[in-house]
Each structure stands twice: as C-alpha cells, then as structure tokens.
Amino acid sequence: MAVAYELRCRDCGKRFKNDPLSSCDECFSPLEVVYDMDAAKRTFTRESIAGGPASMWRYQSLLPVPEDYAAPTPAGWTPLLEAPRLAKRIGAKNLFIKNDAVCLPTLSFKDRVVSVALANAKIFGFDTVGCSSTGNLANAVAAQAVRMGFKTYILVPADLEPAKILNTQVYGATLVRVEGNYDHVNRLSSQIAERFHWGFVNVNLRPYYAEGSKTVGYEIAEQLGWRLPDNVVVPMAGGSLITKIRKAFKELVELGLVAEKQVRFFGAQATGCSPISTAVKAGSDIIEPQRPNTIARSLAIGNPADGPYAARAIRDSGGWAEDVSDVEIVSAIQELAETEGVFTETAGGVTTAVTARLYAHGRISPDDVTVSCITGNGLKTTDALAGKYEAERTIRPRMADFEEFVAQHEVRGIVVDDMVSGELVGGEYVR
Ligand SMILES: *Cc1c(COP(=O)(O)O)cnc(C)c1O
Ligand SMILES: [Zn+2]
C-alpha cells in the first residue's frame, strides 16, 4: 500500500482513494478505512502510545489523518472504572464501566467520531459541515466545528430532548428540526450533502467518522493493562460503535499489542427501537426496520446503517443482544448512579439494564472480565427521571426543623445509610 490509509468496500473489497464517499459504486456496501499495517507496526507501539497525549489522539497513527495532524480539541481517554457495587447488585464480579459520560468536549462518545470526521472535512476542503443526529452527534459537531472554523447545519427529529437542542444551539450552529423520525432526517441529510457539497459527518464522511469509535476499544485494552476483556456490552443505534470496538481489538492483536482472545460482543437496545437485537435473537443478519418509540432517543434509529454488520459481529463473536423496556431503562439509570456515582443518559440506562439481564440469564459468567460501555451523560436526559424524586419541602434555618426533617425521612425509609459504603440492606435498597 502506497498510502498510510485508504477506503475499501466492506463487501466486495474494491479500493477507493480518500474521498468524501460512503458507499461502493459497484455493490452499494459501506466503505471502511484500511491501513498500511506494516507501517503501523513501526509507529503504533505501546511505548509511542504511552508517550502520546491523554486523549484519543494517542492512537493517531491508526486514525485516518496525516501523520502531522494536530487535533484542535482533545476528546476521549475517559476512565475505565471498576464497578464492584453495581457488580454485587447484579451478580457479577469483574465488571468495569467505560465511562464516556465524561467524554470531552460534549459528554458523549460522539466527540470521538466527530474529531476524526471534522479532521477529514478540513482535508477535503469543506467550509460547511453538518449531520443528522439523535442528539449527541449534534452537540459534538456543533461544539467542535467552532474551533475549526466551519459553518454548521444540524438536522434533528423535531421531538428531541430540550437539553440536546440547547446544547447544539449554544455553539451557534444552525439547527433544523425536521418533522419526522431519525430515518427521515437522515434521508434528507444525504440529499443535502450532495446538493450543497457539504461535509456531513455521518453521511459522506461516514467511513472516517466511524474510525473514531475504535478508540473506545483501544482505550479499554490499554486501561486493562494491554489485555482484552472477555465480554463487552455496547449500546447500538446505527450499529457502528460495536463493530468498530471489534475492529480495534483485531488491529491490536494483528500488531501484537495484546494477546489474541475471543472477545464476546453483546449489543444493547431499547425494546421500543430494537431492529438489531431482534435480528440477533432470530439468528439473522437481516434487519427489519422499525418505527422507534422509546425514551432512549439517542439509540432510536429504526433502520440502522450498520445493523447487518453489528448483528454479524455479535454472532461471530459468540455474543448476544438484548433489549429492555423504558421502565427498566429509568431504573437502571438510577441504579448506576446509586451504586457507582455515574449519571448516564437513557442510552447508558439501556446498557446497564441489558448488562444486568445478561448476568441474570447466565449469558455472561460472573468471573469473566466484562466491560459495560456507558456512552452519554445523564444531564442531557433529565426528563427521563421526571417525577422520580419529589421536591423536598423547605425548612427554616433551625436545628429543630432539621431534626424533625431527619426523623420524618427515616420513617419514610428513604435514607439508606449503607448506600454510602456500597453495602446492601437485606439484599435490597429501599427507594
Ligand atoms: C450514537 C450513540 C450510540 C450508538 O452509536 P452507533 O455507533 O450509532 O451504534 C450509543 N450511545 C450514545 C449515547 C449515542 O449517542
Ligand atoms: Zn463493493
């Protein structure tokens, strides 16, 4: 290979030079970035990575950008947390949380994909960028476009959560609310990208965008001490993230940075939008589109672009997929916050509830090293918890009032002392 990276068709293998293209002109399958792995053997080493920045750009030599590219905004390198209290609650032992609820700059894993996509938008000379989004992508594009000097158009379904709308507009992006669901928004975006020659991160820049997701996988391996986990639980919207974590692990094995190991991939969806988990459960790669109806709006893609690849990756890895109800999602958000101090959005509620179910159904063995991917921040979907916590009455600034307040509180059983230490009372928290 004469170049460090280029595009290749995922199905027929046809090669393409680097261009804003997303699908093969022969077979219409999606394009993917491939690298000169011989060159990468020299540049992508444990030592060079350790000497790199504390961001996803420490893996720059396996990302589709020129060698001397200087990313204007650091993203990624989020904590991998041990989760012993959540583990105890759900019958696990070696459970970890990859916490992209604190990914910078906009508090979701989408900051990673946007970093790579916008780098390529610059390379291709676009002056205007955009995306079709279920929320987090909108926030990430709007924020990162500012420091790179792009004009920005963002298309979202009209019923998006208010926090995600505000978190897009505040950066000065032009927000277009489209009457319809994500799939309608996405179709319009493809037409706009073509008509106006704009760089749409998840349309004509999609192969580059998707590479950003690999860094979740690289980080998991590096943070486990250059080891692969036994299992990974990943939320699925378009189905890209789960396939790219798998690609990352394969690349690390190929380059000799980790020992080879069969990692099982588990996909998580909301029952109200579960085209991929439904296919996996049916033993099929054929995705039947659905009309989304769930509070997990960030995952509400009824016709997922990478759905067949996600379903295949799950099956080939020996994993499984599950979907959970909106009630389970909310309760899992609370559970993760109460046990591990991580406040996630509805997508993280999906992942947490699915992780719990996988243990309960014996699909994951308690002794396995399992990583649950938390991909977004709870402050963006506070509506999901509406009515869950009553507004406490006020007290006067007097000790007597406070003592009375505490007494009433204990009677109602809301205060559970052991929450602080992470122990359970009689195997159950009182809510
Ligand atoms: C977009 C998104 C995902 C899923 O990403 P895909 O690559 O489209 O499957 C998961 N979690 C959150 C919070 C997201 O915004
Ligand atoms: Zn092809």
Please summarize what this structure is.
The protein is an alpha/beta fold. The chain has helices spanning 37-43, 46-50, 84-90, 110-123, 136-148, 162-169, 182-196, 206-212, 214-223, 240-254, 275-281, 307-317, 326-340, 346-360, 399-412, 418-421; strands at residues 5-9, 15-16, 31-35, 80-82, 94-99, 128-132, 151-157, 174-178, 199-200, 231-235, 264-270, 320-324, 369-374.
Strands of the largest sheet, in order across it? 4-5-13-10-11-12
Low confidence ranges: 413-431
By CATH, the topology of the largest domain is Rossmann fold
Determine the mean pLDDT: 93
- H/E topology pattern: EEEHHEHEHEHEHEHEHHEHEHHEHHEHH
Shape-level CATH architecture of the largest domain: 3-Layer(aba) Sandwich
| Class from secondary-structure proportions | alpha/beta
Number of strands: 13
Number of domains: 2
The CATH class of the largest domain is Alpha Beta
User: Measured on Cα atoms, how large is the radius of gyration?
Assistant: 22 Å
Roughly what percent helix? 25-40%
Shape: globular
Written account of the structure:
This protein has 431 residues and is of the alpha/beta class. It has two domains: 5-73 and 110-209, Rossmann fold, CATH 3.40.50; 80-107 and 213-384, 3-Layer(aba) Sandwich (Rossmann fold). Helix content is 39%, strand content 15%. The protein has a six-stranded mixed beta sheet, with helices on both faces. Strands 8-7-6-9 form a four-stranded parallel beta sheet, with helices on both faces. Strands 2-1-3 form a three-stranded antiparallel beta sheet. Helix 5 links the parallel strand 6 and strand 7. Helix 4 packs across helix 5 (136-148), helix 11 (275-281) packs parallel to helix 12 (307-317) and helix 13 (326-340) crosses helix 14. The longest helix is centred in the middle third of the chain and has 15 residues, at 182-196. It starts with a strand and ends in a 10-residue tail after the last helix. Mean pLDDT is 93; it is low at 413-431. Zinc ion binds at residues 9, 11-12, 14, 24, 26-27, 29. Pyridoxal-5'-phosphate binds next to helix 10.
